[in-house]
Every structure is written in C-alpha cells, then in structure tokens.
Write a structure and sequence with these properties.
There is one protein chain. By secondary structure, the protein is mainly alpha-helical. The protein has one domain. Helix content is about 80%, strand content about 0%. It has 12 helices and no strands. It has helices spanning about 1-50, 55-65, 70-85, 90-100, 105-110, 115-140, 165-195, 200-205, 210-220, 230-240, 245-255, 260-295. α4 (about 90-100) packs antiparallel against α6 (about 115-140), α6 (about 115-140) crosses α11 (about 245-255) and α7 (about 165-195) packs across α10 (about 230-240). The longest helix has about 50 residues, at about 1-50. The relative contact order is 0.13.
Length: about 300
C-alpha cells in the first residue's frame, strides 16, 4: 500500500510539473493583459459601445465583446446602459454573445493550446457573436429581444487615484478569482494523465459528428471558470481530440456556464433563453464539423 501511494505521488508530481511548466506562463500573461484592459481600456470599450456604426455594427459589436474584460454579471448592466441610450438589440446581442465566449485574458490562456486552436477559438467566437446579432436583426427587427428593466451599471472597483495601484489591485483580484480554478484544472488533468488511457480521447473526440456532438454536450457540465479547462483540453488534443471537437467544447462551455445562464435568463425570458441554448448548440456543432472538414482538406 505504501509503495502504491509513493508511486502515485511521484507520478502526480511529474504530471503536475509538466502541466505547470506548459501553462503557467500563459496564465500569468493573461492576468497581466486582462487587468491592463480592465483598468486602462474599459472606458474606451464602453465609449465605443455607444456609437452608431451602421451596417458594420454587428461586426464591431462582436469585436468589442471579445475585447471587454467583464464577466456576464458586469456585461449585462453595461448592455442595459447601451440599450437605454438607443443601441440596437442586434448590436447588443453580438456584444453580449462574444463577451460570454471570450475575453483578452482567456484568449491569451488559449495560446497554450497552440496557434491553430488559438485562431479557431478567436474566429469561432467572433463569428458566433456576429451570427447572434444578425439573427436578432432578421427575426426581431420590430420586436424587443432583451428586457433590461432593473439593471444598472455597477460601480467600478478600480477607483484608486493612482493608476499603477489600480492595476496591481486588479491583478490581485484576477489571481484570487482564477487561481483556484486553474489549480483544479491542472490537478484533474494530472489525474487524467495517470489513470485514463490516452487512446480514449481519440475514440471519444475523434473525427465524425459523434465526437463533435459529444464535446459540445460535455462543454455544458464540465466547463470551469477562466482557464481551468485549458490543461484538460491540452491533454485531450495531445491524445487525439480533433480541433473541431475542441472548438465545439470551447463554444458551449462558456456559453452555458451556470453563472452565465442565470444572468442571461433574467434578461431574455424563457422563450428567448431556449432560443439562445438552441443557437449555441447548433452553432457549436456546425463549427466543429466545419473545422474538421477544413482540416481534412488541408
């Protein structure tokens, strides 16, 4: 028994060390970048959100959503403020959808997955935001899609008069928020590497529609906050998971995270909320299949 415990400890430390060496630099850079955007770029992002962009509105709104460092509970009050100032619902849908899926910090975390996965994540999240905006524009042109009654912008916590101190305080908040989930992700991945045969990932998430559908479905219960799923995705990809399955997982995960769903249901109502869930699942599946098809052609 003691020999087994010692062997497990050695294996666990070995795989933890590998994971930490691979991912910690991206996690640290993501925190530094995310805090910089939050402290120094938030005012520009929110100011741009009040503009009237014409036919480019959905595209720019999706890009602004990705650039926004706010979580969903911070994004909704800002979107409510935009709505009160006359911003269209299709622009708001693009902004909120993209903001749910990606932010500068998570984008940098995702660099640990490799260049191809990073590009796929950015492009798919951007297009998902655009698609959400265009669908609202087509089908809800004359009807309101959101109900922002009762939502007001929260007071900023970055209020210290010294900009450097504001930045450092934001960095510390980011570390406190993401470090526990990051640690859980690394630990689960190390245990996965020790006890789960690597060929399982290839069998479950390999080519074909079933692998993409399974990844999209598993993104709902398995997704963890911040970069917590990055270590697991890194191992799955190394074990044979296709980029299409990874793309589907990276879309459904943040889009259906419990905290995000609770906030969205409040402003969407039950009918629009069900439309949102259906849209996310269909878009993630189509994206995964398209990525796999493109990969097979190149």
């Amino acid at each position: 028994m003691q020999d087994w415990i010692e062997r497990e400890a050695v294996y666990l430390w070995y795989y933890l060390d590998i994971q930490l060496r691979q991912i910690v630099p991206y996690w640290a850079l993501g925190i530094l970048l995310g805090s910089a955007v939050s402290v120094f770029g938030k005012r520009f992002i929110h100011g741009a959100g009040r503009g009237r962009w014409g036919w480019l509105g959905v595209v720019l709104a999706s890009l602004l959503g990705i650039a926004s460092p706010l979580c969903m509970y911070g994004t909704i009050p800002i979107a409510a403020s935009f709505s009160r100032q006359g911003v269209r619902d299709d622009h708001l849908a693009a902004f909120m959808m993209a903001s749910v899926l990606l932010n500068p910090q998570l984008l940098l975390y995702s660099a640990a997955l490799g260049q191809a996965a990073l590009i796929i994540r950015f492009v798919s999240c951007f297009l998902c935001g655009c698609a959400a905006g265009w669908l609202v524009r087509v089908f809800f042109r004359d009807r309101p899609f959101f109900n922002f009654s009762g939502f007001h912008a929260r007071a900023s916590r970055d209020t210290h008069p010294n900009a450097l101190v504001r930045y450092l305080l934001n960095v510390l908040r980011n570390i406190r928020t993401t470090a526990p989930w990051f640690a859980v992700g690394v630990l689960l991945t190390a245990l996965y590497q020790i006890h789960v045969p690597r060929e399982w990932a290839a069998e479950l998430f390999g080519g074909g529609g079933f692998g993409v559908l399974l990844a999209a479905t598993l993104g709902v219960p398995l997704y963890m906050c911040g970069g917590g799923t990055i270590p697991l995705l890194l191992e799955w990809l190394a074990s044979g998971m296709t980029l299409g399955s990874a793309a589907a997982f990276m879309l459904t995960g943040p889009a259906t995270k419990i905290t995000n769903l609770g906030a969205l249901k409040t402003v969407l109502g039950i009918r629009h909320f069900l439309l949102y869930i259906g849209f996310v699942m269909v878009f993630s599946f189509i994206t995964g299949m398209a990525v796999n098809a493109f990969g097979m052609m190149t």
